[in-house]
Design a protein that fits this description.
34 helices, alpha/beta, flat, six-stranded parallel β-sheet, about 950 residues
């Protein structure tokens, strides 16, 4: 406890002097002027009296007990003086003297010496190189500080690493008539730490808000622990300076390259609920609001004004700060309609007009406070010379003293109406010069309100294969190195994190055999601990469609990396989905930092990422995902379907569990992680992991519990506008009754892709050139998320969705799956790799199957009606039907017109498919994904593929009927 520091019963001043320009003299003057309640003992061997107080040659000569001493003498004399203090039984020593670790190695040694002396006697050191402390409690009133701002009672406590910053904060509060509770500028933090001070303030009932200035965080883990304990009880407002002085921590991985010291500080603040500010003014403004106003329950704000322009500025700032404009209830509108002048505007903001007096302005505020749709009020008040301004202020003051909702106010006036400001502030309502200041302060309060009202974090502990992971890592422990990619994928699968099918190759003769097993097209990558950024050095070949292309890529890379003698990885090629990045970076004396954001080759350029400290809770996982700037893309925009956010959150939690279980993992990049359509998961396409030599202590996940069910995004956030337009398309569903297996309309289109499997045999034999675009930026497999299930890891039982994916490796067997289309492919991605193979196969002129197919176009006339059940693909199916029948039945086009949906602009592409089985169209489709990963095009490709599938189904049904 720090009671002897902040609540001393007696104080001695070593270095006290009659020289008014000495620190000892100023400290003594401040103690006297602020009416310190205990005895004061000046210590000076050369003077008998200091300011009419008897002086003593040494503390050992003082007849009474001493709790606290202030030391301001030459640095080399401090150790000897502390010996005397220890012998006297002094509890705390504030060392104002400079010349310690801040001046170099010699000073650091001296600093260690004084701490050692103090601890020998059970004494504590505050400082050195410190300004001092203050406590405005009238029962104590200690100003053991050499600064100048007068001290008055208040309920805001300050901890400042810099005395200059601390004085600035105090000065601003003093100028607006606000006092402080306690103050501390701790200097070098040799013994008493910033964390102890914050903890002490947190236990003080009279402290309502804590302002903290930080230059360097000496003990991040300790800060996190203390802040987690204090924040739920009272707000901690922080200003971290020196941002530009910190260098980057690592550059070997994308995650490491984007993590700086400031990133870690931000992650600590977010984890513990600390509110961070960019300027001193913003922090003070928020502290003033916290000191007297209740915390808002939600973010709905209402503005009241008697002048339009400033209120509009306030609205803009409120919205940009994350607040929402409240909707007035009908009852409130009715009440205001009878209360305000006819010219008034009863909406939000409520403009009572400049002529409003105490009854109109004050009555409006009272009515709004009663409205349950409103959580806080922002008032804009100009002191119009033609109304009773003081009367309005008195009315607002009366309201402010009893209001149970927060009120902040901007007053536009001059010195003539200073009383107006005083009356409002006296009630506890903070007054600001600008509406923006009021809005930002209210936003900070709202943000804190969300933190304290959040439900207890839920930590999930998944059933993973930790022993097998440990075996893999044991082979590399004690070294600082990157692991082979195949081993990284193995570890991920042990932790239930879905990955693409990946096989390691040592010999050229294995190439075609593995490629057939995986299924063309494939990806070939070099795999070597010495080659970190494979894409940048040409170590990746994508979309290898046949054996010649594969052999060419292998030979080319073998020559290129002959010196490194790498192994090779062959993976399935995936297109579609949205590329994201997940990663982790180890920290010194702190848990790993996790990263989530938009991935690919531009991740470091875009920097749309979020960071949190492991272990993360379920709530933090969803918060990370929702906090990126482009989250709307994941929700589904411009007709796109939302991605599987719940699966992304699960992967983040599993990643957190992995780095918490194995803190020797120093860097881990999963880039890209391809996010698929909602309900179809996500899959890791590429990954790299680096170990550190010395593993820190393992992090234990707090309150871990076994998840019985898969994660589900918080319901309030689930509604997505893009989904609404899809509903109108369902009218066509009525025609589906003919097809019983299509219960899940939106997903059936994807299932229909299975029929295309039979065409796999017709794999293109044309030699295609290896494409070596970035492994991270290229489009990747949508269906691969099911990969993780492929390796029968013990961790898989937890991921039901991945279990279904086990069928992917056996692609050749898929032609037989048509019998159960819906079930088999539900877990797969937006666009199956096989789907892209089929179109290409159809394009190939060498395909012997093509000749007989021309006869099929005539058959469509019979099953014209059956194909309609495939309407889920609304845009494409109706059009397809139109084309084949055109030569025979001109009336056919009318049928598709009946359903409202069929009228899609994609029809022009359909006719071509009819004239020549999907071959021509598919070639275009197949090539497109290789060059772009634009989300909007992904949907377009999906629709085109669905059209092809529908066509394929029609033809197959016709053949069956013909037989």
């Amino acid at each position: 406890m720090l009671d002897a520091l902040f609540k001393p019963k007696s104080v001695a001043i070593i270095g006290a002097s009659n020289n008014p320009l000495s620190i000892g003299h100023i400290v003594m003057t401040n103690l006297i002027d602020h009416n310190f309640k205990g005895p004061i003992y000046p210590i000076n061997p050369k003077s008998n009296f200091i300011k009419s107080f008897r002086a003593y040659p040494s503390v050992t000569d003082v007849p009474d007990e001493i709790d606290l001493v202030n030391i301001s003498i030459k640095n080399t004399l401090v150790p000897a003086v502390l010996e005397e203090c220890g012998q006297k039984g002094v509890k705390f020593a504030i060392v104002h003297t400079a010349g310690f670790k801040e001046v170099g190695a010699e000073g650091l040694q001296l600093e260690r010496q004084i701490v050692e002396v103090a601890h020998k006697y059970g004494m504590r050191i505050y400082g050195p190189n410190s300004q001092g402390i203050q406590n405005s409690d009238p029962e104590i009133s200690v100003y053991a500080n050499f600064t100048f701002v007068p001290m008055s009672p208040g309920n805001i406590s300050i901890v400042a690493q810099s005395g200059g910053v601390g004085e600035t904060l105090k000065l601003h509060l003093y100028r607006i008539g606000k006092g402080i509770r306690m103050y501390a500028s701790f200097g070098n933090e040799a013994d008493v730490s910033m964390n102890e001070l914050i903890d002490y303030y947190g236990q003080d009932e009279e402290t309502k808000a804590i302002m903290v200035h930080i230059e360097t965080m000496k003990d991040p883990a300790g800060f996190l622990e203390v802040a987690n304990k204090v924040s739920p009880k009272k707000p901690i407002l922080a200003l971290k300076t020196g941002k530009t002085a910190e260098g980057k921590i690592a550059v070997a991985s994308h995650t490491g390259a984007m993590i700086e010291q400031e990133t870690i500080i931000d992650a600590i603040f977010k984890k513990s609920g600390v509110l961070r500010f960019d300027t001193q003014e913003e922090m003070v403004n928020a502290a003033v609001a916290f000191s007297n106003q209740p915390v808002p329950s939600k973010e709905r704000v209402c503005l009241v004004t008697n002048t339009g322009g400033p209120a509009i500025i306030g609205v803009d700032e409120c919205v940009s700060a994350g607040l929402k404009l409240a909707r007035l209830s009908a009852e409130t509108k009715e009440t205001l309609g009878k209360l305000v002048f006819q010219e008034a505007i009863v909406s939000n903001p409520v403009d009572v007009v400049a002529t409003a007096g105490p009854e109109e302005y004050g009555g409006t505020v009272e009515a709004l406070l009663k409205d349950t749709n409103i959580d806080s009020l922002l008032l804009v008040f100009v002191t119009a010379p033609f109304v009773d301004c003081e009367g309005i202020a008195k009315k607002l003051g009366e309201i402010g003293k009893t209001a149970e909702k927060p009120i902040v106010c901007q007053v536009i006036t001059i010195e003539k109406w200073e009383e107006v400001i005083r009356l409002i502030r006296e009630s506890g309502i903070p007054v600001y010069d600008f509406a923006e200041d009021a809005a930002r302060a209210l936003s900070a309060m709202t943000q804190y309100g969300k933190f304290v009202q959040r439900r207890a974090p839920t930590y999930r502990q998944y059933d993973v294969n930790r022993p097998s992971t440990d075996q893999v890592l044991t082979r590399h422990r004690g070294t600082e190195k990157f692991l082979p990619s195949q081993e990284v994928f193995e570890i991920l699968r042990h932790y239930g994190i879905p990955t693409v099918i990946s096989e390691r190759i040592e010999k050229k003769g294995e190439l075609d055999k593995l490629a057939v097993k995986i299924g063309y097209p494939v990806v070939l990558k070099v795999d070597s601990a010495d080659i970190i950024h494979k894409t940048e050095v040409g170590g990746v070949a994508l979309n290898l469609k046949d054996k010649p292309a594969l052999l060419f890529a292998f030979d080319d890379m073998s020559r290129k990396f002959e010196k490194e003698k790498p192994g090779f990885l062959m993976q399935e090629y995936i297109t579609g989905g949205i590329e994201l990045i997940m990663g982790a970076k180890g920290n010194k004396d702190l848990q790993s930092t996790l990263m989530f954001g938009f991935g690919g080759i531009l991740v470091e350029a875009i920097k749309d990422v979020q960071f949190r400290l492991a272990p993360i809770s379920e709530q933090e996982a969803f918060e990370m995902i929702r906090s990126i700037k482009a989250f709307s893309v994941l929700e589904g925009i411009r007709g796109q379907k939302p991605v599987d956010i719940a699966k992304l959150a699960e992967i983040l939690i599993r990643l957190s569990q992995l780095v918490s279980d194995f803190p020797e993992i120093d860097e881990l990049d999963l880039n890209p992680v391809v996010a698929l359509e909602e309900g179809k998961g996500a899959v890791v396409v590429d990954a790299r992991m680096k170990l550190r030599k010395e593993a820190p202590e393992r992090v234990v996940v707090p309150g871990a519990d076994e998840p019985a069910e898969p994660l589900e995004p918080p319901k309030p956030e689930e509604p997505v506008e893009p989904e609404e337009p899809e509903k109108p398309e369902e009218p066509e569903k009525p025609e589906e009754p003919s097809e019983p297996p299509e219960p899940d309309k939106p997903e059936e289109p994807g299932k229909a892709e299975e029929p295309e499997q039979p065409e796999e045999p017709s794999e293109p034999s044309e030699p295609s050139k290896p494409e070596e675009p970035s492994e991270e930026g290229q489009p990747h497999e949508p269906a691969k998320p099911e990969e993780p299930a492929l390796p029968p890891e013990p961790a898989k039982p937890e991921e039901p969705s991945e279990a279904k994916e086990t069928e992917e490796p056996g692609q050749p067997a898929k032609p037989e799956e048509p019998s159960q289309p819906p079930e088999t492919f539900k877990p797969e991605g937006l666009i199956m790799p096989e789907d892209f193979i089929k179109p290409e196969d159809l394009i190939k002129p060498e395909e012997p199957v093509q000749p007989p197919e021309p006869v099929k176009p005539e058959e469509p006339e019979k099953p014209e009606e059956p194909p309609e059940p495939v309407k889920p693909e609304e845009p494409s199916i109706p059009e397809k039907k139109d084309k084949p029948p055109e030569p025979v039945k001109p009336e056919e086009p009318e049928k598709p017109e009946e359903p409202p949906e069929p009228v899609k602009p994609e029809e022009p592409s359909i006719p071509e498919k009819k004239d020549k089985p999907p071959e021509p169209k598919k070639s275009a489709l197949q090539e497109e994904p290789e060059d772009t990963i634009d989300p909007s095009k992904i949907i377009e490709r999906i629709e085109k593929m669905e059209e092809l599938e529908g066509k394929k189904e029609d033809e197959e049904e016709e053949e069956k009927e013909g037989k």
